[in-house]
Amino acid sequence: MSIEVLTLLFFGSLLFFVFLGLPLAFVLGGVSVIFLYFTWGVGSFYMVASQIWSTMGSFTLVAIPLFVFMAMILERTGVAKDLYRAMHLWFGGLRGGLAIGTLFICAIFAAMVGISGAAVVAMGTIALPAMMERGYDRSMCLGVINTGGGWGILIPPSIMMILYALISGVSVGKMFAAGILPGILLMVLTAIYILVRSSLQPHLAPALPPEDRGTMREKLLALRSVALPILIVIMVLGSIMGGITTPTEAAAMGVLGALIAAAVYRKLEFGLLKEASIRTFKLTGMIMWILFAAHAFSAAYQSMGAQPMIEGWMASIPGGPWGVIIAMMLITFVLGMVLDPVGIMLITLPVFLPIVESLGFDPIWFGILFVINMEIGYMTPPFGFNLFYLKGIVPPGITMKDIYKSVIPFVLVEIVGLILLMIFPEIVTYLPNLFF
Amino acid sequence: MRAITAFMNGVTRLNKAIGVAVSFLVFAMFVFILLEVFLRYAFNSPTMWTNELTQLMFGAYAVLSGGYLMAHRGHVNVDLIQSFLGTRMQAAVDVFTSILFFLFTLALLYFSFEMASKSISSWETSYSAWNPPIWPIKACIPIGTALLLLQGIVKLLEDIAIACNLSYYRPEDHSEHDPKGEQL
Amino acid sequence: QEETFTWKVQSHWPGASSSYEDSLGRLKEQLEERSDGRLELQLFEAGSLFSAKETYNAVSRGILEMGTISPAYASNEMTLAGIASGLPFAFRNVWEAAYFHQVLGFEEMLREEAAEDGVYWATDKVYPTEMVVKEPVDSLEEFKSLKIRSSGALQKFLTEAGAAASYIPGGELYTALDSGIVDGAHWGAAQGAYSMGLYEIAKYHVQPALNIAGTDVIIVSQKAMDELPEDLQKLVKDVLKEQFWFRTNEYLYKERITLAKAIDEMGVEVTTLPPEVQDHLVQTAQSMWDEEGERSDKAAEALAMLKDYLGDLGYL
Ligand code: NA
Ligand code: NA
């Protein structure tokens, strides 16, 4: 059987079982086992166990439970709630103000985490209840968190950019610098979308009625509640930038900050911590079992010869250099929905990079497009992992259909951003050329 | 019939108890990473063991979560067709798709058991600078998988009961909800 | 019509690493050409199918026909792994390590021990491991205040020598070195440091080498080997033997070229550790060697052979 047919069957059976309602982790794992049986034999199932063991040994993933734990403490102590109250008093007059504030917090969070997954779950915990309580439309809330939560890999530090730099041989520092303006661009575009949409349909993101906006005194008093979150941000970002911790270790600083905040709120008690740790366990376990299965799935797909297949495709793409670039974007985007980032990079980059360079494109520019594409893949139905992570934290009333629908406009906005970066590559290359 | 119900409740209780116990590891991971940062930054004397110990705890933490999550319906899925099918049909569909679940967990159980027995037979250590035993963590893979598999069997029995309207399982028996609406 | 064989080969090198092309690419080309296409290699980058630490097991089980590893990844299965992956401050030149492996018989000892697991062991090359640091080391005191990213046996060695050695995963190494969490690191030598971008932020390349050893190994599943006809089996073994000499030499050449490029393009400076530091490191190292000899009779034999040899060379 050719790899093209296998690919169709592979993805087709994923789609089939996911829609029948089997949890994503078991679909990925089960489909891998079936295909390994037919292509490589029973002995190769050892690979599934071996991939799980390797995933358990990945130190950067330790940041996931820590960041999630931090978010749980902030939510249960009321720190997050007060933060949103302050935001609401200050920006509540603006339609969509809270959503834009959430985007901003997401961007800060993205600067604190280097991996995807942790951000979506943590921001969802903090922001979703706070926004929905204030009458924001469920689709708006879900879309904002999905988008902002994905920025963790675009805004430095980013494990993925480091991996890209290592594989492509470009400077890590330049990659980091290159990610900053595109990150800001995506943020601005998303904010514009929110403003336009909420002025057209005010019920999606209602403004705070004038009588509730509080006096200046109330506003200033509310600012006190911003101090603790800022302290945490300083602790985490400061220890990364100041050479005190690696990005992974910085997650522990975040937990320390959250515990200090809980103490200030006089909520540092066993019951609350126990509950936070159990919820953290549940959410981390959800992410980890998806990753376990996704790594097995990636390995199974690679063993069937995914890379030579893509190599073959690239040789026959019409449309000149830009046709090739767009085809690469599409492949990354589709793989971004089902494979883990490392798997995508291993399969595609060795094929893509020589072509990109021979066509005369800047590998740093391509790298940023690549990372954004993966990020969009993560938030795109039907398989985008972030959608599933989000599903893990929403209240029972919200279905996967709601989540699917909510992301569509936001995906379109990100694609607009991607096109802008293709038309104006200077947005990517300006800062790295300036700094280095 | 009684035996089936007892088995189902027993497995679920076991998984919940293990989950609660394991969940506390997050405190230990936090403390050890902080300790390492502190020793390295303040005393210029990083240890050889804190990060590796944290890593090992994380491995156990992650892999032992499978059964607990299953007991709480924590493995996320797409619920698009549920509303069309209704509860009984969905249960029947779940019985069908569980084939994939069992293929995955059985393959994993068999091979991780082999992997772990080999590790235990040589009391495998990590051969890092600290060189701790890693066989207990490898052993967590078949244990975690077995817990998940058992809970999967419970889920299958539940689905069969719902689909066929059998009496050994009543879904309303243990509907539990977090007051805030999130299933814990 | 003769039967053709396709082998899956799991590398422990990322595709961007020079050794992926230079070692595995060369091996693939040689085997495919000289077998007239009867033996084909399907290459997989680091981590694609099995992680580096799992590759030995996969080859031993015959799931993979071939793989590349560092001996340290087979530590649990091979008592000689510690000596193979390099005792610190033992050899002073690459040719000494090459002679020890291929002429004095250490390679044969490794091959015998790996054969017990159904693995055919062939060292890819011997080469040095060297450090890069952000500030030059001028005294023992300065050495002892260093924070160094390290791993495995060298981490233990550097710690015993008084430096603050910690393990940081490859993905976070650049950031850690840049922000000053560590002041230095070793990742291979010049080519490794260059490929990881370390010279961007750490401008001092430190010599002498921390160790010189057969740190890259090609392993073949004995089961897969046995399935080949006699002539192909001989071809594989011959090509692997040539590979060692070819790659050891080529690697040294590329080290020098890369270092020259780093000096020229990035202003890197080569520094030598002061004699007091070197003496201290040699003393620390020698007190650690004996531990490796304690793992088995074979390891004790290999260590005795090494000590005799170093004595003959006038180093002990
Ligand atoms: Na980030
Ligand atoms: Na052995």
What does this structure look like?
The complex is a heterotrimer of chains A (436), B (184) and C (316). Chain A is mainly alpha-helical. Chain A has one domain (3-435). Helix content of chain A is 77%, strand content 0%. Chain A contains 21 helices and no strands. In chain A, α6 runs parallel beside α12 (224-241). Chain B has 184 residues and is mostly helical. Chain B contains six helices and no strands. In chain B, α1 packs across α6, α3 (50-63) packs parallel to α6 (135-164) and α5 (82-121) runs antiparallel to α6 (135-164). The longest helix of chain B has 40 residues, at 82-121. The relative contact order of chain B is 0.15. Chain C is of the alpha/beta class and 316 residues long. Chain C starts with a strand and ends with a helix. Chains A and B meet through α1, α2, α3, α4 and α13 of A and α1, α2, α3, α4 and α5 of B. Residues 77-78, 113, 116-117 of chain C line the site of one sodium ion (NA).
Question: What key phrases describe this protein's structure?
Answer:
heterotrimer, A: 436 residues, mainly alpha, 21 helices, 77% helix, globular, B: 184 residues, 6 helices, binds sodium ion, cell membrane (chain B)
Condensed summary:
Chain B has helices at 2-23, 25-43, 50-63, 65-71, 82-121, 135-164.
Largest interface: A-B, 73 and 66 residues
Q: How confident is the prediction overall: mean pLDDT of chain A?
A: 90
The overall strand count of chain A is 0
Going by helix content, strand content and strand pairing, the class of chain B is: mainly alpha
Strand residues, percent of chain B = under 5%
- Helicity range of chain B: over 70%
Membrane topology (chain A): Multi-pass membrane protein
Keywords (chain A): Cell inner membrane, Cell membrane, Membrane, Transmembrane, Transmembrane helix, Transport
Function (chain A): Part of the tripartite ATP-independent periplasmic (TRAP) transport system.
Subunit structure (chain A): The complex comprises the extracytoplasmic solute receptor protein and the two transmembrane proteins.
